[in-house]
Amino acid sequence: MSNLARKYLEQQQTEKKVQKESQVLIKKSWLTPGEKIIGLAFAGFVCFGAVHIISNQAKIYEVNKDIQIIEAKVSDQQKVNSDLQVQVSELSAYDRIYKKAKDMGLIKDENNVKVVH
Question: Where does 1-32 have alpha helices with state H?
């Protein structure tokens, strides 16, 4: 074999080696399986936390709505109670009671009153 043929064969063998090495580099993954598992676990925890926070906020909203409804009912009942208190004070006036007693025929007899000591 001539020197030229040897150089040509050596050149082809080195090209095949370079091609094989480049194929090995292509198979290399961006993330290792352990990193993928850790990433998935982290994403799962983030999703779980987000759902948990949103559900807690929904519960807080419902409780606040119930509190506002009860406070409105309490204020309405306080208005009714104050109106009834005004009616009680008007109806329990001495002059009105005396007039009603007179209309019913009750008379004041001072001779029939006994004082107890």
Answer: 3-26
- With left for phi above 0 and alpha for psi between -120 and 50, is residue 105 left, alpha or beta? left
Distance (Å, whole) CA 88 – CA 81: 10
- Which pLDDT tens digits describe the chain residue by residue (117 residues)? 567 667 777 777 777 666 555 544 455 678 888 999 999 999 999 999 999 999 999 999 999 999 999 999 999 999 999 999 999 999 988 888 888 888 888 877 777 777 787
Phi, psi for 56 (deg, rounded to 5)? -65, -40
pTM of the model: 0.52
* Tokens read off for 21: 């090495």
Query: Can you give the residue ranges of every domain in the chain?
Result: 55-103
Q: Distance of CA 48 to CAs 35, 41, 62, Å?
A: 20, 10, 21
Tokens linked to 116: 């107890």
